[in-house]
Amino acid sequence: MFGLRVCGHFLHFHMGGKAGRKRVLAVLLREGEISQRTLQDLLDIRSGSLSEILTKIEADGLLEKVKCGSDRRGYMLRLTESGKTLAKQVTAFHEARVDKLLSCLDDDEQLQLLATLDKLTLHWTSDEVVSMFEKQNKAEN
Question: Contact, 76 vs 68, CB < 8 A?
Fold first, then answer.
């Protein structure tokens, strides 16, 4: 288990943490036009944190908010051309780093690792495991 902790620590601190500008740009590039709520759900980030990031990205001219046709109060988010350019650079840099990190594994080992991680993620997000941690956290507080 120590190895899993070390890997998690390394990835968190060397690959950009949980959320931030780079991750927001990458998701917006992949999704195209998206609502702020959907983006929040995809990033698993608090509303206030996302709003702060989006305000900075918009101020830098990388993002534009477009009023929804069906809901005058709502906005759709999309990257500007300069935002798309930066997001493509960020994504390419990230993919190169991932390739380098996995270069010690051959193709079959990489596929096995991904399958194992998918299996763990599915289990860890199951109701059984989530409720176990919720009960444990309540008992500790």
Answer: yes
76 and 98 assigned to the same domain: yes
pLDDT digit of tens for each residue in the chain (141 aa)? Answer: 788 888 888 887 777 655 588 889 999 999 999 999 999 999 988 999 999 999 999 999 999 998 877 666 778 999 999 999 999 999 999 899 999 999 999 999 999 999 999 999 899 888 888 888 888 877 876
Q: Which domain holds residue 42?
A: 2-104
- CA 17, 21, 54, 75 dihedral sign is negative
Alpha helix stretches (DSSP H) within the chain: 2-14, 21-31, 36-43, 47-59, 81-101, 107-124, 127-140
